[in-house]
Amino acid sequence: MFLLMLAASFVVSCSKGGGRASSGKPDSRGELVPKESKKSFEAQRPYGMVAIPGGSFVMGQADADFTATPEKAPLKTVTVSSFFMDETEVTNSEYRLFVNYVRDSIARTLLAEAAGDDTNEDGIGRYAFLAKKAGDDANAYQKYLEAQGDRDGYNDSRKLDWRVPLYWKTGQYPDEKYAEVMESLYLPPAKRINNERLLDTQKLKYSYEWEDIATAVKDKTRSASYLKKESIAVYPDTTVWVKDFNYAYNEPLFDRYFWHRAYKDYPVVGVTWDQARAFCDYKTKAKRDYVKSGKKRGDNPMKFRLPTEAEWEYAARGGLENATYPWGGPYLTDDRGCYLANFKPKRGNYIEDEKKGTYPYTAPVKRFHRNGFGLYDMAGNVAEWTESPYSNSTYQFSSTLNPYLSNQAYRELKKSVRGGSWKDVGYLLMTGYRDWERKDSARSYIGFRTIQDVPAGTARLRRSSK
């Protein structure tokens, strides 16, 4: 009996753990026992994000309403699930990574198309599609894809070789074909100012797809017909510094704000709602490609997206009930008289605190105190796009559990903007205040930050990334 029990315990212990998926057959006892590891799932905090625990709160303007328009933000108790959120607004340096990726991917695609079947390593052939360069060493699946030609849906046959460096200096071009492709990315000589050789930013377009799930579910079917294809010019509109202020001298910001290293830690502006969503898709793609590459083991990460109005307001309050501002309130200064956010404190006076630095426009991120959740600049600096459409009906009649009207998000032209900005008075910085802008408009005072969903079954949220 002892030996039988010992043998049984050995079989059971060997069947535990390992993280292997079940083969689909019952175990040795004829019982349906899952083979997955019993270890609880822990969501890992992405770099630059903080964990926002789920909870309920009173959404809306619970205190002073100087505009006497309570219909803009009526009080309602809502509940939001846990999520990760960028601790700061997306900065110029972060958004430049997106622009540079789009620039490089377009250049590599054009070079690969020009290379064709040429795989000569001394010239443009170095940039041929990976399927072309594999040649006789291609595996069965690569040969199958190659046989499909340019049929839609077989994009794997057009994978780029990112290991080969690009050369942007004309003196480093390997051959004339390479020079011809690269020159097509720049403004033609007739359109240049002072003969300055600049990239044609209108060609920097990011293409992606997303599924209109709400409509598909409503129609009780799912197919490729519900995929929405987007092609977005991603370079921010730097002219907003001139267009937004007709009677102010803002030309230095127009010339340098986005690309100069002095502004690398400043929030990006001049970005439309569509561009912000394209950035979210790129951020998701970058993370998923990294996991697929095998450099890091783990599940396919949740997508990054813009926060809903409810999520943004809940995060802005920092865990405080009925907080007028992210730091509580009701004042805009601390006990030493220092301003707590970047905004316009007085009529004609745009400088908040000369001790911390003069910020007549935007300020570098992390220059003011963070709120209870560890988020910076949830009031002031730049207002922020949300995923939610702006209307009284979408705010008042949406669900009290993760309120959001997904089937109207991309159809509505007006999008909710929250937080107030560097050019606004203190009232617009209140956590419950609502504002809006057209989704195709870019402004010098609107930026954004991203969030990532957290699976509901997560045991706990990691406070740090590894």
Automatic annotation (TrEMBL):
Signal peptide: none annotated. The gene is gldK. Residues 15-37 are annotated as: Disordered. Keywords: Lipoprotein. The lineage of its organism: Bacteria, Pseudomonadati, Bacteroidota, Flavobacteriia, Flavobacteriales. Residues 48-451 form the Sulfatase-modifying factor enzyme-like domain. InterPro entries: CTDL_fold, Glid_motil-assoc_lipo_GldK, Sulfatase_Mod_Factor_Kinase, SUMF_dom, SUMF_sf. The keyword Ribonucleoprotein does not apply. GO terms for molecular function: formylglycine-generating oxidase activity. This is Gliding motility-associated lipoprotein GldK. Pfam families: FGE-sulfatase. The keyword Disulfide bond does not apply. Gene3D superfamilies: paralog of FGE (formylglycine-generating enzyme). Residues 26-37 have a biased composition (Basic and acidic residues).
